[in-house]
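# step 3/5: fold
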Amino acid sequence: ILTVQDLINTVDKDGTGSIDFPQFLMMMKIKVQDQNQEEEIREAFKVFDNDGNGFIDRRELALMMRFSGEIVSDVEIEVRSVDRLEIINEADMDSNGLIDYTEFFMLM
């Protein structure tokens, strides 16, 4: 997520530290796009978080893998859970075995 100063630096092409109206409009466009992207990520998280508890667990991840076309049986989920959970291991910053929204956002 960009800060106001980041936005100004992005559109301040002449390096004056101030922006004119066209640059301001460009900055607002970037900000709106950033907000829309965050909303899309939040909606994607809700899709993965089937039970709405605020976390993505192994079962929910496996379910989404099935919906995406990957063939995953219940036995594979249990037997090969370590292999299949590389995504959770990569994203799980607090090592609780679950992905919360902040971890999901950082993964994106």
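# step 4/5: annotate
The longest helix spans residues 21-48.
# step 5/5: archive (pending)
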